Amino acid sequence: MGRLGGIRRAAKALGVSHAIVSRHVRGLEERLGVTLLDRESGQMTAVGVDYHGRLVKVFNELREATDAVRGRTDGKLVISCVGGLALHWLAMRLAMSSGRNGMPPVDLRSEDGLLDLSNNAVDGDIRYIGDGQTLDRKRGVRTLELARPHVFPLASPMFVSRWGDRIRSAEDLATLPLIEERSDVEWRMWMRAQSIDLPPNTPTGRYGHAHLALAAARAGQGIALGNHYLIAEDLAAGRLVKVVPREKEFVPVTLGAYVFRGPANRWSDPSIVRFRRWLAAQFSADPAY
After folding, report:
1. Are strands 224-227 and 141-147 parallel, antiparallel or unpaired?
2. Strand ranges inside 58-172, DSSP E
3. Which CATH class is domain 75-148+256-285?
């Protein structure tokens, strides 16, 4: 459910009815004493997203330990991906393409840290590298840039309905609750592109991961920064909207790029080449703005 973005998609992938998946989720909620799924929106709650992220890390470690002991013999590619992109964009596309039309089967793993590719634990790694972030260009690793998406402010319709009249220009955003991941670096870079210096000690809500920051924005907690690949479904469903100033338009901003990284000694392996070309085509077909 967390990987595919909903109960019905999870049920389809498992080959069971959505009622069965829903019953298991409700049973888990009762055992944990928390709400994991918002029944009105069909989306996981912030608690559910956080719980899913923690479980993914545990299961990934188990798989890696098993692979290291017995070696991978099933012909699958093991691809790691930054959590937000894996959850909101890549998992659904892989579910429709993996193992079909010459596309190799893919074992997708959600990882937020930059992986060491020298131990062959994964066949490829998809990251978002910020413009202010230094990518450790180790020997034996090759990198392909996939997309440089525009980054823009977004919030829930409820939040915009309440506060939208106050937003005449980018400068007014600093007077409203802002949502960030681990630090205010992206907000400061975005504001700087608008020729604004974010005041010191501007209060922000910090959530640690992109998918948690977006969950907070959906819940009306403030304004987050996002890109098309992370929030296209939320925009289409009306769960989030772009924040539009009443007077002075925002300057379009890019703050980084999605990249594919892979071991140089396997860069030309047919299965990795096919996956890399498929991935580049998926990004090219989906506008980054």
Report:
1. unpaired
2. 77-81, 106-110, 124-130, 141-147, 151-155
3. alpha beta
